UniProtKB/TrEMBL annotation:
Upper lineage: Eukaryota, Fungi, Dikarya, Ascomycota, Saccharomycotina
Database matches in InterPro entries: DAD/Ost2
Protein's membrane topology: Multi-pass membrane protein
UniProt KW keywords: Endoplasmic reticulum, Membrane, Transmembrane, Transmembrane helix
Stated name of the protein: Dolichyl-diphosphooligosaccharide--protein glycosyltransferase subunit OST2
Major subcellular site: endoplasmic reticulum
Record-level GO BP terms: protein N-linked glycosylation
Pathway noted in the entry: Protein modification; protein glycosylation
Organism: Kluyveromyces lactis (strain ATCC 8585 / CBS 2359 / DSM 70799 / NBRC 1267 / NRRL Y-1140 / WM37)
Length: 126
């Protein structure tokens, strides 16, 4: 026998409650993970900054509606995305150590990759 769902507003409220509970659970799990680890907090705050910076750049191009410095926009946006990817990979390597890769080596590789990314971006702008 199939149960009939209640009114649409009850189902919506129930889904909203489930969504807010899942967000609360995810946030508490995140706080447990980064509790006392200042490296992860710094990486996560820089990740959030890169997301905000990328959104601001994209909105700026949408609002101006001119693509005159298009190379500069592409370079800046690619830097945001590339640095985000590099930081996420560094964060993953710091959380769960990879076999044969120490934390110092992971950080060194991150620095070299970031320098290469910025070097390419500067030459792209010309």
């Amino acid at each position: 026998m199939v149960k009939k769902q209640g009114s649409g507003s009850n189902a919506t409220v129930s889904k909203f409650v489930q969504f807010s509970e899942s967000l609360g659970t995810a946030y508490s799990s995140y706080l447990k993970e980064v509790n006392g680890n200042k490296q992860l907090l710094l990486i996560d705050s820089f990740l959030a900054f890169l997301v905000v910076l990328g959104v601001v750049q994209f909105l700026f191009v949408l609002l101006i509606r001119d693509n005159f410095p298009f190379n500069a926009f592409l370079s800046g946006f690619i830097i945001c995305v590339g640095q985000f990817v590099l930081l996420v990979s560094l964060r993953l390597q710091l959380i769960s150590p990879f076999e044969g890769i120490s934390k110092q080596r992971a950080f060194g590789e991150f620095i070299v990759a970031s320098l290469v990314l910025h070097f390419i971006s500067v030459h792209f702008v010309n």
